[in-house]
Amino acid sequence: MKIIKHSGAIVDFNRTKLKQSLLKSGANPTIVDTVLQQIEKEIFEGISTKLIYKMAFSLLKKSSNSHAARYNLREAIRLLGPAGFFFEKFIARLFASEHFETKTNLILRGNCVSHEIDIVVKKNNNIGIVECKFHIGREAASDVKVPMYILSRFNDIKEKQHDIFDKKNTLSKCWIVTNNRFTSDAVDFGKCSGLNLLSWNYPENNNLKTKIDNTQLYPITCLTTLTLSEKDKLLILDIILVREIINNRVALEKIGLSPNRIKNVIKEASELCRFI
Length: 276
Prior knowledge:
This protein is an alpha/beta fold. It is built from twelve helices and ten strands. β1 and β2 (10-12) form a beta hairpin. α3 (49-63) runs antiparallel to α4 and α4 packs across α12 (259-272).
């Protein structure tokens, strides 16, 4: 059976690939098989992967909100847009979880011009910059022009001393992080020029998805028990991570949730982060 991807490409329906993605949600094999059987009854020639995803999400949600939330991870990261400001905050928290000191939205003076830097990180006296490339469209990719441009900015500021964490800091590392993917040319250029690239699926064993699952640093936009409007309100309150509401009823009260809904949200958040 042929299905249509987000990009418009027509491919064969891959049951094994869908099963793997469902298992990664944390659902047990019995639930996954039930979901697969239901989807296979309803799909048709020319169905879009977007519709298949919606069906899978809805069926998972019936068994467990937290399974659906984890399955929804990539879309949840996209909801940190549209400008990507909250994506930058999310990435800063990801680096902090790996014992980096972080600062966001700094202006650093280079040899030629000043540069607005998304994140500056420090670990073991090594200081670097992190530039975030956020895409709203699922199929958009960061091509080779992105690391070329960021490298030129990094080269302009790395030789100068900066007052960041303390006096006379110099920069030695540069990361580029995107919520989608890099083209093969971008990856090759990054390797050749010494840049550290991080995307949804790169590097293979330590990519954005893997890091989030390993640290359980799920964005607040994952939760299925909150509306889009409520998620936006929490982001504005600087509640970026699911775990930041588990012991924070005040924030949930502040956005107008009833005691019963607060209980449901905290239950989903706790299950998602494996706190209970």
